Amino acid sequence: MFPQKPQNKRHVYLDHGATTPMDAAVFDAMKPFLANEFGNPSALYTIGRNAKRAVDSARKRVAQMFGAQPDTIIFTSGGTESDNMAIFGMAQSAKGHIITTKIEHDAVLGPCQELETRGWDVTYLDVDVEGQISVDAFKKALREETVLVSIMYANNEIGTILPIADIGREIIKWRKQSRGGVYPYFHTDACQAAGTLEMDVEKLHVDLMTINGSKIYGPKGVGVLYKRRGVPLQPIVFGGGQEMGYRAGTENVVAIVGLGAAIEKTRDMGNTIQDLRNYFWEQIQEKIERVELNGPLLHGNRLANNLNVLFHGVEAEALLLYLDEYGITVGTGSACATGSDEGSHVLRAIQRSPREIESSIRLSLGKETTKEDIDYVMEYLPSIVTKLRGLNRN
């Protein structure tokens, strides 16, 4: 029998890697722009100017987080559009070469695969069993015709933090000896890193960087592409010339305001979440047999809030659905890949078998997660795993 459901069900959200709940202060900042302050920021009258000031203020906040200038911040509809803009916006010639990795989000892999059909050559760097790339392998992949490098800052499924600053330094060295000191340009998808890792673009040595609002306790449907001054990015959406000509279309003022407010709420969370994450993993190991951690060790290059756990003998989707009945929300990987029949490309890249991929759950904590939440989960998780293993044997 499955454990009896509690009369007072606790709701525990452990899928912050997919999206985060909106911070109350963010919602408060957005409210005026859902009602009276509805102006178009391109208009000259008062409510239009108010909207423009709000957008400009948000742009300055994001720029400060990046250690950059406001005119390098382009607002988009989210991480996917920002990644597409970075890749297609730099791929305007007939053909060229791109370097990326096998564990990128589909928002990067999809555009790269599309460019291959148009004659571009793409190198997909291998990763080790922790999802880490080799800087030496990257250096060997560089070519005279390499136009763009797109390597994520932190992986959304297994939490691996990649050596972005090291890659950036190697690119700077390469430029000094090749192609007149120009190519390649360096893009990183930093959606999972924002708010907990170093985001100063000068320290990271990046030319283009993506973040989105839904991963930093802001609204969905808004993102940012940082573009270093002088990078020859071409627009992929044409029309009214908004966002300094890089992204046409009336700005989503309310969402941009929310993202600007969220930037202020994402600092100094790492240590508390990491301690709680470590406690969670200790409890899982102590109370459940036949479990493994996918990705880096806890004290390694891993996001502070991330656990990706292989429960041998359990179907992950069944475990997700049963936990949901007890008010516990978890993920099975990238939310954007839900419904895919192929399973996680990230877990395949770290050499997990199809059966192991089908038995892996992502548990990603947030700033509001408490020890009481984890203890509640551990009241039910061991029994549910045991029961599901029994069903699979029958």
From TrEMBL:
Cited Pfam families: Aminotran_5
Keyword tags: Iron, Iron-sulfur, Metal-binding, Pyridoxal phosphate, Transferase
Required co-factors: pyridoxal 5'-phosphate
All residue ranges annotated as the Aminotransferase class V domain in the record: 12-377
Gene Ontology MF: a single term: metal ion binding
Similarity comment text for this entry: Belongs to the class-V pyridoxal-phosphate-dependent aminotransferase family. NifS/IscS subfamily.
Protein name in UniProt: Cysteine desulfurase NifS
InterPro entries: Aminotrans_V_dom (IPR000192), Cysteine_dSase (IPR016454), PyrdxlP-dep_Trfase (IPR015424), PyrdxlP-dep_Trfase_major (IPR015421), PyrdxlP-dep_Trfase_small (IPR015422)
Recorded catalytic activity of this chain's protein: (sulfur carrier)-H + L-cysteine = (sulfur carrier)-SH + L-alanine
Top-rank lineage group of the source organism: Bacteria
Chain coiled-coil ranges: none
Species of origin: Candidatus Magasanikbacteria bacterium CG10_big_fil_rev_8_21_14_0_10_47_10
